[in-house]
């Protein structure tokens, strides 16, 4: 028996909701909604007493899984490693297919976010790059070739 019905979203905890949201909107995601959670529900789920969390839900224009950004108002957030590399344990990256990889890299580069390394091509079928966005979030951008 399978328990999973569908892949709903990926959640990322951030400190600066505005900056991180703007970064993903610049890549082409749309804000689906915003809100906050607190009280018994979030305490039961997260195990953090007196937690209050602001949430922004983002989506890709053509549907599919969503991206949830969470920022804790209380208690203060605990910093992660803003320079994490692919071999470190934990969430490795969030990946999006783009129509023009270079244009996407240039767009986030104009805002000061750069490549982790370079742009790679695999077997003439895909080009891909890791971009380090705000708060060290690694975003994998890839373009299908032909």
Structure characteristics:
alpha/beta, 4-stranded mixed β-sheet, 18% helix, globular
Provide an overview of this structure.
The chain has 146 residues and is an alpha/beta fold. The protein is 18% helix and 40% strand. It contains three helices and eight strands, in the order E-H-E-H-E-E-E-H-E-E-E. It has helices at residues 17-27, 40-46, 101-109, and strands at residues 9-13, 30-38, 52-59, 66-74, 94-97, 114-122, 126-132, 138-144. The strands form two sheets. The protein has a four-stranded mixed β-sheet with strand order 1-4-3-2, with helices on both faces. The chain has a four-stranded mixed β-sheet with strand order 5-8-7-6, covered by helices on one side. Strand 6 and strand 7 form a beta hairpin. The N and C termini lie far apart (38 Å).
């Amino acid at each position: 028996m399978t328990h999973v019905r569908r892949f709903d979203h990926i959640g990322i905890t951030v400190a600066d909701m505005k900056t991180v949201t703007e970064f993903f909107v610049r890549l082409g995601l749309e804000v689906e909604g915003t809100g906050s959670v607190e009280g018994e529900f979030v305490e039961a789920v997260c195990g953090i007493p007196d937690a209050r969390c602001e949430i922004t839900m983002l989506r890709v224009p053509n549907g599919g899984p969503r991206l949830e950004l969470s920022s804790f108002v209380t208690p203060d957030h605990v910093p992660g490693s803003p320079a994490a590399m692919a071999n470190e344990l934990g969430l490795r990256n969030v990946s999006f297919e783009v129509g023009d990889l270079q244009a996407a890299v240039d767009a986030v580069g104009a805002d000061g976010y750069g490549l982790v390394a370079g742009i790679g091509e695999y077997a003439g079928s895909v080009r891909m790059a890791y971009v380090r966005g705000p708060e060290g979030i690694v975003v994998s951008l890839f373009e299908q070739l032909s």
